[in-house]
Amino acid sequence: MTGIIEQVRTWIEQAISTLGYWGIVLVMAIENIFPPIPSELVMPLAGFLAACRDQPTISKACQKADFTLWGVILAGAIGSVLGALVLYYVGYFANEVVIRRFVRRFGKWFLLSEADLDKALDYFNRHGDAVTFFGRLVPLIRSLISIPAGMARMSLPRFILFTTLGTALWSGLLATAGYFLGQNWEQVLGWVELYQTGFLVVLGLSFLAFIYFKLIHPRLLRSKP
Questions:
Q1: pTM, to two decimals
Q2: In 10 A of CB 140, how many CB atoms?
Q3: In this predicted model, what pLDDT tens digit does every residue of 69-91 receive, in sequence order?
């Protein structure tokens, strides 16, 4: 796995160094479609390269680059929005009918029913703006949130607006951290890993609560005399 990560990192560095801002746009767009390419590797590195331009003596590892911090953040946000639009249209054209048919046939294996799907879509219709914005700040979720947005036929201008705000904030935090950490920009990976671990713990506890109230609790009620 380490070897794969190193290969991905080398490819990211080459893309950014060769294509400049367009390389950041390209890699962040792909990162949104294929989440295994981590934004926490792309944006801190780009922020570090911007620091190399402003402070070329901060590290022997500095490469020749002509990035600004604001340019890096903007390129990262644009790339993220482009990638998010691809998944938005995946959800849009897959549409509710296809998903509903899947839930009818296989939902029981995932403890899901059409009523659960209705509740999820209703929740997204009522709180889609907040879900889209805050979802961009959560690893693993930040890419996939585009699919239910498309399924729910969320207004495209609203989707683009809140996706842009969320991705700009996420890209800005990562790039700024890389900028100020300089040659120690890789520390950001550890911070994001801790953040992601905390999220996974919360997600796991939520799943256990779901299992309890969906499966165990009803059986306990039925078993009472």
A1: 0.74
A2: 11
A3: 899 999 999 999 999 999 898 88
